[in-house]
Amino acid sequence: MHDFTYRPQSPRTVFGAGSLAHLEREIDLLGARRAMVLSTPAQARQGQMVADRLGARAAGIFPKAQMHVPIEAAREARDEARRLGADCAIAIGGGSTVGLGKAIALDSGLPILAIPTTYAGSEMTPIYGITEAGLKTTGRDARVLPRTVIYDPELSLSLPVALSMTSGINAIAHAVEGLYAPDSNPIMDLMAEEGIRALAQALPAIHSNGADAEARSNALYGAWLCGSVLGNVSVALHHKLCHTLGGSFNLPHAETHTVVLPHALAFNLDYVPGAALRIARALGGVDPRSVAGALFDLAQSVGAPVALRDLGLREADLDAACALALTHQYPNPRPLEKAALRQLLQMAYEGQRPSSAT
Ligand code: NAD
Questions:
Q1: Whose CA is nearest to atom 32 of ligand 1?
Q2: What separation in Å is there between the alpha carbon of 96 and the centre of ligand 1?
Q3: For the chain, which terminal residue's Cβ has fewer other Cβ atoms within 10 angstroms, N or C?
Q4: Is the pLDDT at 98 greater than 90, yes or no?
Q5: DSSP 20
C-alpha cells in the first residue's frame, strides 16, 4: 500500500430512476427560493419541464448553454442571474450546461444543482473551463463544485446512442487516468475500477437498445463514479492531449477522448502495472498487457470513432499537436519524449489498434 491523503470532495448525490421527483426537496435543502434553470437550446424542453415542476420557485430559464462555455455566454448568463435575483442555478444537461453553471458560480458563488443527462462527469468536479478569444482556460475552484446532483437515468434515455457511446468512454478515460494519478488513494481506485466495469458492461447493451432502462441506469452509475474520480485526483497525458486537440483544432470533446484513450494508455502501460491490473479486471478479465487494445475494441464494437482523421483533424496538424502537447506538460507516469508522442498521434490519426504497450 502506498502513502496517501484522503479528503473527498463530493456534492450531495441523489440517484435513481424517477429521482427528479425529489427536486423540490433538494431545492428546499439548499435554502433556495428563486432557481434559474440552465440548458442548451437543444434541451430547452427539458429545461422548461424543470421550470414547470418548480412553478413560482423558478425565477427564469436560460436555454443558451454552448460547448466550451464562451465568455460572452457566461457574461450574459451572469447578468441574467442577477437580473432575475436567482439564488440557485439548476443545470440540466451535459458538460456544456454544467460548465455554464460553473461559470456563473465562479463569479457569484451561486449554488448549483446539477441534473446530468450525459456521462461526461463534470457535475462531480470543481474543474471549470471558459473560452475567450478562442483560448480555453481551465482551473479548479471549490466554488464551482455543484452542491447537489440528481442522477435520474430516465432523463438520459433521450441521449442519442452514438453520443452515449463516446460520452461513456469519456467517463472511462477519467477513471483510467485516475488509476495512475500521483495523488490517487485506495477509495478512488475502487471507484475507478467499478466505474470502468459498470460502463464497459452498459455501453454494449445501450448500443443494442438505447431504451434499455437498466443499462442506462448502470451507465449513469458508472459516470458518477468516474466523474468523482476526476473531481478528486489529477489527470495526465490523455487529458492533456484531448485538451490540446479540442482547444486548438476544434475537435469534438467526447469523440476525441474516445479515439485518444487506447493510445494514451498504451503509451503509459509499462509504467502503471497496478492500474493495468485493475483495468483488466474491470474489462472482464482481459490480459493486463492488452487493456489498451481491449478499450480500442470496445469503442469499435459500439460503433464509436477510432481515428482522429474521422473527426476532422488534418495529418498536417499532427506536428503542431505534438509540439503543443509537449508544452506545459501535465505530470505523466512515462516521461514525454517527442518521437514516441508523435508516433502515438500518428496511430490515433490513422485509427490503428494498439496491441500492447508502445
Ligand atoms: P454536451 O453537454 O455538449 O452535450 C452534447 C449535446 O447533447 C448538447 O446539444 C446537449 O444538449 C445534448 N444532450 C445532452 N443530454 C441529452 C439528452 N439526455 N437527450 C438529448 N440530448 C442531450 O456534451 P458533454 O460531452 O456532456 O460535455 C462536453 C463539455 O463538457 C466539454 O466542453 C467538456 O470540456 C466539458 N467537460 C467538463 C468536465 C469538467 O470536469 N469540468 C468534465 C467533462 C466534460
A1: 68
A2: 5
A3: N
A4: yes
A5: G
